[in-house]
Specification:
The structure is a single chain. The chain is mainly α and 83 residues long. Helices cover 87% and strands 0% of the residues.
């Protein structure tokens, strides 16, 4: 049988091991959470930018459609609405 001090040392060593294991587990968990949050943020940002780009392209198409109609009207000798 181990002396009393050896039991206390073993218990203290085990407590330290459990403490550092829980600290390591928490650090890994927080690191994974940070990576997941960053990836999720990039995904939302890409979606937002795609939406904004789509809206801008639709606006350009509408503007080009209007100027295209005005150009066709002028080419046919008809006055445009802006004249």
């Amino acid at each position: 049988e181990l002396p009393k001090d050896a039991h206390q040392d073993a218990a203290a060593t085990m407590a330290q091991f459990q403490y550092w294991l829980s600290v390591l587990g928490l650090a890994i968990f927080l690191g994974c959470l940070a990576v997941w949050d960053a990836l999720d943020g990039f995904r939302h940002l890409r979606g937002y930018l795609a939406r904004v780009e789509s809206e801008e392209l639709e606006q350009l198409h509408r503007q080009l459609g209007k100027s295209g109609a005005q150009f066709k009207a002028q080419a046919n000798g008809k006055p445009s609405d802006s004249d």
